[in-house]
Amino acid sequence: MEADTSSGEFAMEDFWDARRKVNATRAIYHQWEQLEKTGCINNFRIAAGLQDGVHEGFFFADSDGYKWLEAASLLLGSSNPPPGLAELVEHFITLLEAAQAEDGYLYTWNQTLFPDERWDNLLIDHELYCLGHLIEAGIAHHSATGDDRLLTLVLKSAALLVETFTDAPPLSTDGHEEIELALIRLSRHTGDSAYLELAARFLDRRGRIKAFGWQFIRQTLRMARKMRGVEKTRRRYYRSHPQTPPVHLPARNRHKVPFTTPLRFLAAALSGKFIQQHRPLERQDKPEGHAVRFTYLNRAAAMLVRDTQNDEVLKRLEKVWEHMVDRRMYVTGGIGSLPMVEGFGRDYELDPEVAYAETCAAIGA
Fold first, then answer.
1. Are 181 and 300 in contact (CB under 8 A)?
2. How many helices (H) and strands (E) does the chain have?
């Protein structure tokens, strides 16, 4: 796209160039500082036994570190890598190597707080979600640098997933999609079809959980108990370590929530729509539920179509895409009109005053 200064138009490259410069010179370092400040990186040090402390942040906090690692790796592959960034990346990879269990498991929430628990709360927990982002970071790092150190770590985790989930029942399916598209990318990157097969099985298992509503309630209550226990653990730790200041996360953004939203969230959660478990994927014909989960799921399905050339699935995806763009997307391109649900409302229910329109959903779309 050539610039036309007489009409005020500019090259798309010019538009992104300024943002790339901010990312490379300031944002990537600021993000690392925030990951350190909020305890995300320390969680890996604690899991590795390198530092005393208590897990900070949400149960999905690992994914923030992995997404930083992916972005930083891509910057290392540029013609002019940011100074000092390679050292930060190597430091983080060293922490990951130390924190990863011998069999490839890596999830600091469980490793530091619930060391005897794995894969038992997948509708709510984010083990597979976090590992998906780790896999994508490993692919990015290997593609950008040629160094296989992080990829080796990733393949160890991926082998554990193949062993654990290839023949697992529908209940052993992630509540927050992401692992599916990561496995497809890993299959493309390595040529190993086992990852593609596991991704296809994860997709095929959706919407087939018996007594889903009861399972969702059971796992939600279990996570609530665990989180209350974690808060007590944190308070005890800081009482016994008065010299260590506790981590305080910023307050959440305030936003308007219609009075009917909690009931609508409950209905979406118990029916399975919130996490796209309400019916098998081949019968999901409209955008529903949590917008990030929806886009990650269908992005993986689209990637699988590209690799398998399944015209029937392609037709379904095109129909769902058109429904989303024509009826459930803001003119800005944002999707996910309902707060709390963090996702889709009814057709043309696009009130700008309550728009959630999460950035992750835009990336997925």
1. yes
2. 15, 0
Q: How many CA atoms lie within 13 A of 190 on its CB side?
A: 22
Exposure of 313 by Cβ count < 10 A (0-12 exposed, 13-18 middle, 19+ buried)? middle
Does 4 score more than 80 pLDDT? no
DSSP conformational letter for 129: H
Report residue 1's pLDDT band, with 50, 70 and 90 as the boundaries: very low
Question: What pTM was estimated for this model as a whole?
Answer: 0.94
> Model confidence over 140-181: pLDDT tens digits?
999 999 999 999 999 999 999 999 999 999 999 999 999 999
Taking each helix axis as running N to C, give the angle between helix 62-76 and helix 127-145, from 0 to 180 degrees, rounded to the nearest 10.
10
Task: Classify burial at 55, counting beta carbons within 10 Å of its beta carbon; exposed 0-12, middle 13-18, buried 19 or more.
Answer: buried
Distance CA 84, CA 204 (A): 44
Q: What sign does the CA torsion over 92, 95, 99, 104 have?
A: positive
Give 290's strand partners. Answer: 343
* Locus of tokens 């200064």: 5
Q: Which of residues 363 and 9 earns the better pLDDT score?
A: 363
- Rounded to 10 degrees, the C-alpha dihedral 315/320/324/325 comes to 0
* Number of Cβ atoms within 10 Å of the Cβ of 143: 13
Distance CA 306, CA 43 (A): 38
Integer angstrom CA distances of residue 58 from 63, 90, 226, 299, 339:
10, 25, 12, 25, 19
What count of Cα atoms within 13 Å lies in the side-chain half-sphere of residue 195?
25
Q: Is 178 helix (H, G, I), strand (E, B) or coil?
A: coil
